[in-house]
Amino acid sequence: MGDNQRENVGEGNSDWMSRLPEELLDVPLWNLAIPGSHDSMSFCLDMSSPVLKSEPWLLRLTDRLFPCLIRPCIYRWSTTQQSVLWYQCELGIRYLDLRIARKPAGGSSLFFAHGIYTLMSVKEALEELASWLDAHPKEVIIISCSHFESLTDEDHVQLVDFILSLFSKKLCLSQDTPTLRSCWSGGQQVILSYDDLQMECQHRQLWPKIPYWYADSPDPKEVIAYLEEKKRHGRPGHFYVSGLNLTEDARYILLHPLQNLRRMTVEALSLLLRWTAEQRPGPGVGGVNIVCCDFVGFSRFCSIVIGLNFKLLKAAARTSSGSQLPPG
């Protein structure tokens, strides 16, 4: 897809929450359909950085011996996005998957990671996001902070202090049932999930870990089958993610030496998006909430997910119509 085409993909979605119908403003956000990006910061991976300590020892050893071979390969298969955060938000993304790490020789700054570390720091990314929110006061973003590779207790304290200071009154309290109307009335724009129980218990502005359903497969048919099986067992009561992201393994990479994650994703998009368009949000069994995808700017993914919310209007209209029918 060319640059001009990518620019048109998200046209009209930069303020989609503020334009939802009145009937949806009091729906809990976990009952709306919300587009998200998987591994949101992987657009700026740093090929000069080493492989993560959490990666298998054999991969780390090979990286030390042959970095010129290993890191380009990791880069090809770890890059899941190609747009900066503010542009992802312009496309309509309202859930961000931020995997935080301490980079070796990175000083006091924290970064993000997926296989290898990022060039952009956590502070730079979150400040960029705060500026975007200031320009879009009726948009609400769910931020998931997780993984925390090599972070110390002091790192957590300083990171949370920075988050609380940066977003301040924009943070929605974890005891609330957030709707668009309630967030607007309180000037709240950020739901911050922080996957560390100790920090979560200390700060009511931090939300618990958000469940993420993903199939861990390179086959889009297996991804869909997995999500359908999870749906049959019922959805969580609050926020949760349905992941459309494909996952390669060593065998797949060896059998596809000239491929990369971008190509694999693009080839699967039509099937994955067709499944997405068939979904409906809401509290019932099988109701979707956050739907995450790789390379969110390469298709109509955001528009398709946002459009699912209008199925709630149709369902409400049918219920209202049925309740007005005379008894048989």
Features:
ten-stranded mixed sheet, alpha/beta, 328 residues, TIM Barrel
Number of separate helices: 13
Structural class per helix/strand content?
Answer: alpha/beta
Order of helices and strands: HEHHHEEEHEHHEHEEHEHHEHH
For the record, the count of structural domains works out to 1
Count the E strands.
10
List the uncertain runs: 1-10
What's the CATH H-level superfamily name?
Answer: Phosphatidylinositol (PI) phosphodiesterase
- Enter the CATH topology name: TIM Barrel
Whole-Å distance between the termini? Answer: 56 Å
If you compute it from the alpha carbons, what radius of gyration comes out, rounded to the nearest whole angstrom? 20 Å
Kindly estimate the percentage of residues that lie in beta strands according to DSSP: 5-15%
Using the alpha-carbon principal axes, give the shape. Answer: globular
In oligomeric terms, what are we looking at? single chain
CATH architecture name: Alpha-Beta Barrel
What do you see in this structure?
With 328 residues, the chain is α/β, with parallel strands linked by helices. It has one domain (16-317): Alpha-Beta Barrel (TIM Barrel), CATH 3.20.20.190. 41% of the residues lie in helices and 15% in strands. It is built from 13 helices and ten strands. It has helices at residues 3-9, 57-65, 67-78, 85-91, 122-135, 153-167, 180-186, 197-202, 220-232, 250-255, 261-277, 301-307, 310-323, and strands at residues 34-37, 95-102, 110-114, 116-121, 141-149, 190-194, 206-207, 212-213, 241-243, 290-293. Strands 1, 2, 3, 4, 5, 6, 7, 8, 9 and 10 form a ten-stranded mixed β-sheet that branches. β3 (110-114) and β4 form a beta hairpin. α2 packs across α3 (67-78), α5 (122-135) packs parallel to α6 (153-167) and α9 crosses α11 (261-277). The longest helix is centred in the last third of the chain and has 17 residues, at 261-277. The chain is globular. Residues 1-10 have low confidence and may be disordered. GO terms for molecular function: phosphoric diester hydrolase activity. It comes from Poecilia reticulata (Guppy). This is PI-PLC X domain-containing protein 1-like.
